[in-house]
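Exercise 3.2. Students should predict the tertiary structure of the chain below and write it as structure tokens, then compare their answer with the key that follows.

Predict this chain's 3D structure.
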Amino acid sequence: MESKNGRNEFQKNIGEKEQRKLKYKRQEKQSVWKGFEVFGIIGWSVAVPTVVLTLLGMWLDKRFPGEHSYTLALLVGGICLGCLNAWYWISNKMKDMEEDE
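Answer key:
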């Protein structure tokens, strides 16, 4: 009885390893493009809020001049928002990778 359990467990482990190998072989062709995709998503997720909030700050500085610079404050805010956005994308990609394994 133990030999059947041991044999079934062995076959199950071999099957799982083979499935992982086949999956990685299929993804191997796309790995470079996947890297560019993730890099692009992260770059845009930081750049877009930074640029939009900086432009808003410039408009506010022209419209409502004062002692403090809206441009600088919103630039920093845009960078912080972009970094949080990038962190969100990276954590989602990491979860997806862990689920695939």
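Discussion points: The CA atoms of residues 45 and 82 lie 6 Å apart. Residues 2-100 form one domain.
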